[in-house]
Amino acid sequence: MRIDILTMFPELVAPWLDASLIGKARRGGRLDLRVHDLRAGADDPHRSLDDAPFGGGAGMVLAPEPVFRAVEQAAPARPLLLLSPSGRPFTQRWAEDLAAGGSLGLLCARYEGVDQRIADHLVDGEVSLGDFVLAGGEVAALAVVEAVCRLVPGVMGNEASAREESFAEGLLEYPHYTRPAEFRGWAVPEVLRSGDHGRVDRWRRAQALVRTARRRPDLLAARGGLSDADRALLAEFGMLGELDGTGPVVAPGEDPLS
Length: 258
What we know:
Layout lengths: L1 E6 L2 H8 L2 H8 L4 E6 L12 E2 L9 E2 L1 H11 L5 E10 L2 H10 L1 E6 L7 H6 L3 E4 L9 H12 L9 H6 L17 E2 L2 E2 L9 H19 L1 H6 L5 H9 L3 H4 L15
Parallel strand pairs: 1-2, 1-6, 5-6, 5-7
Antiparallel strand pairs: 3-4, 8-9
């Protein structure tokens, strides 16, 4: 997997890429991560990248000449995506597609954004982390890098983790517990200590359904709602009535399927 990141601040990005699982995979040759300084495309003594916007207005805009020059010099992997709040929302499915593609470039904007000709004629698309604005694209680029790279075979220690986590099947992930079995009066659900792996799997699936229905009903709707099998599973753990609005309300923080 090759990923190129083009940024005004390579010193912010480079150390992060050498840490944790990403850094280990990079040193092991599974990931080819390259950081390029956009200022390499500047041709004035101040290495300027920005200029005032035509028509007036607040802030500065990344100019096309130095950015085009920097990208053409770096020859980054494609598709080259611009980090932008007006871009296509980033999703787990998109991360999977990018990981499968084997290469990716990320262009980090700053200030008020980029000259529109960069978006129209230099990059292959725009990506957004959500409906909020950052000072620049570096944090967003690193989020994309981690989401994509952890799906590359051999990067994560346990490949099953990527299959079972949130959004892998359009559902939020089930809750996790570890030792001790009881902490300050709060016990780990009995089912997780039962040794019945089939029941544990069903419980986790039911938890994922309940959590998604409560916190992200839009995700459940996108899956077509609850299937007959889902309803049977929730009924097994006494949760179907609650989701249908006929059962007890579970207080925040309480485990609904324990």
